[in-house]
Amino acid sequence: MTLSTSSLPQNAVATGPAGRAMAQPMDAGLLEGLQEHLGLERKASAAYWAMALWFAERELRGFAAHLMQESRGEQHHAGLVADYLIARGQTVDLGALPAPGQQWSDAEAVLADAFRLEADVTTSLQLLYSMAERAGDVRSTVFLDPLIQGQIAAENEAAHLLGRVRFGRLEAASMLLIDGELTAAQQPAAALA
Ligand SMILES: [Fe+2]
Fold it and tell me: What residue ranges do the domains of the chain occupy?
């Protein structure tokens, strides 16, 4: 269909549900997927916080600080999705969050959960990516690219930490060593604050 732009009023632009100017409407399935993904990032943030508290309660402050940083990272990702939805003229739907799990048998079980969490987030992003491609929504694939790249790094880090803890067989000396390393890794970030 060809529509001469000269026949439109000069200030006419398409608007989204929030009333903001919208360059390209968003596919309904993709929009729903992005809203769900935002919820998943928020859930991941709460889950990491619960994990951080579990370690803090057991005097492992390096693990706790590392997992708190992950929790903040997930909240940041949720914020990026929210900002993107607004940039696309959509409204952000913040639903209720379930309580995170807080019962683990040992540190290995906590970190196995963290690894699965990262893998789930990556799967969700991959699904969104293929939906965006099917919908011909290049803006969304460009938005998702760095998030997926970040997930590959996050999975790698989670696997490394789980592997280190398994290698040390949860023995006190090895746990304290890893805890010290995680504390040292936090210091540059803390010094900047
Ligand atoms: Fe995330």
Answer: 28-92+106-192
Which CATH class for the 28-92+106-192 domain?
A: mainly alpha
pLDDT category, 5, cuts 50, 70, 90? Answer: low
Distance 110 CA to ligand 1 centre (A): 17
**Residue-level pLDDT at 175:** 96
Distance of CA 86 from the midpoint of ligand 1 (Å): 19
- pTM above 0.85? yes
* Cα-to-centroid distance, 141 and ligand 1 (Å): 16
Neighbours of 150 (CB within 10 A): 16
Structure tokens, 118: 């990262």
Residues with Cβ within 5 Å of ion ligand 1? 41, 74, 77
- Give the pLDDT mean for 144-154: 96
| Of the listed ranges 34-38, 166-170, 174-178, the one predicted with least confidence | 166-170
Q: Residue 159 and residue 163: Cα distance in Å, rounded?
A: 6
57-96 core/surface letters (b: 16 or more CB in 10 A; e: else): eeebbbbbbbbbbbbebbbebbeebbebbeebbbebeeee
Q: Could you tell me if 49 and 117 are in contact, meaning their C-beta atoms sit under 8 angstroms apart?
A: no
User: What pLDDT is recorded for position 1?
Assistant: 46
